[in-house]
Amino acid sequence: MTPTPPELPSTAEALLPLLALSGFLVLTLVAFGARCAALGRPRTPYIESRATPVLWKWLMEWWIWLWRPVERACVALGISPNAITIASTALSGVASALLASGRLSLGGWVYLFGASLDIVDGRVARAQGTSTKAGAFLDSTLDRVAELLVFAALAVYFRHTAALYAALAAGGSSVLVSYARARGEALGANAEASVGGMQRAERVVLTGLPCALSPVCDALVGAGASVVVVGSALGVLAAMTSWTALRRSYAIWRALRGPVVETPASTNVRWLDPMRRRQKRPGS
């Protein structure tokens, strides 16, 4: 049984908001391109450190530039970075409810909007001088919650199709990618912990954008095309994220591998006491 989106009044009515928003984004792309031509491309350190194509870095810089007015407004109003983080997660919860009910386009846009706030919170914290380890922990933890909510919602929507397994695999592998990075950095494998391309920004785009643009597929190809496109995107996402998880885990394992250091048996293991007593007897 193939899931079908809820009926809409007309194709034009469904596409009008999408076309308006897409037109706005294209205009901002042109404006950012003109800005880069005149002043040079901005170079955010954490974007420059990523092993990604220049075009992707350019698009990330454009997205940060696009959200800069929101960032400045939050700083001017004194909005807490933690409040922005929680709002981002709440919007992902709203997006998951929309996606599970079949409203793919609206759910996709809400997810992209909410995930973009995750860029703002860290920049606001640095601008306000309020960056803390507690805030970083909250941000990372809620990022995982947001992703799992969305993948769970897509699993519910695709529960009668093979795309269900892609949604589950994408959710599981995304958690593994994030865990491998956190654990690798904690053990000192900082460079290896960033191996692979499917980091959160890439996962958000590959999840949210096909959903957001789903009405275009239905308009161009026919009703139901969006289900195939979104399901296929989930399959690609699952495969690429799983590959990133394998590459990163192997790179970290190789970096941490070394000679085995023998450690004495723990002195508080009671079942070893008889053996220790025999070893201490004279002549044994």
SSE layout and pairing:
Layout: H1 11-39, H2 45-48, H3 54-66, H4 68-77, H5 81-100, H6 104-128, H7 133-157, H8 163-186, H9 200-212, H10 214-220, H11 225-256, H12 273-280
Structural write-up:
- The chain is mostly helical and 284 residues long.
- It folds into two domains: 19-66, no CATH class; 67-256, CDP-alcohol phosphotransferase transmembrane (TM) domain (Four Helix Bundle (Hemerythrin (Met), subunit A), Up-down Bundle), CATH 1.20.120.
- The protein contains twelve helices and no strands.
- It has helices spanning 11-39, 45-48, 54-66, 68-77, 81-100, 104-128, 133-157, 163-186, 200-212, 214-220, 225-256, 273-280.
- Helix 5 runs parallel beside helix 7 (133-157) and helix 9 runs antiparallel to helix 11 (225-256).
- The chain is globular, with a radius of gyration of 24 Å.
- Residues 6-10 have low confidence and may be disordered.
Question: Distance between termini?
Answer: 74 Å
Helix content: over 70%
Mean pLDDT figure: 83
Question: Please, how many domains?
Answer: 2
Instruction: Give the percentage of residues in beta strands.
Output: under 5%
Question: Which regions are unreliable across 5 or more consecutive residues at pLDDT < 50?
Answer: 6-10
Structural class designation = mainly alpha
Number of strands: 0
Rounded radius of gyration (Å)? 24 Å
Q: What do we call the CATH homologous superfamily of the largest domain?
A: CDP-alcohol phosphotransferase transmembrane (TM) domain
- Per DSSP, the total helix count is 12
Please write the CATH class name of the largest domain: Mainly Alpha
Taking the sheet with the most strands, its summary is: none
Order of helices and strands: HHHHHHHHHHHH
Given the C-alpha coordinates, what overall shape results?
globular
Q: Judging by the overall fold, what is the CATH architecture of the largest domain?
A: Up-down Bundle
CATH fold category name of the largest domain: Four Helix Bundle (Hemerythrin (Met), subunit A)
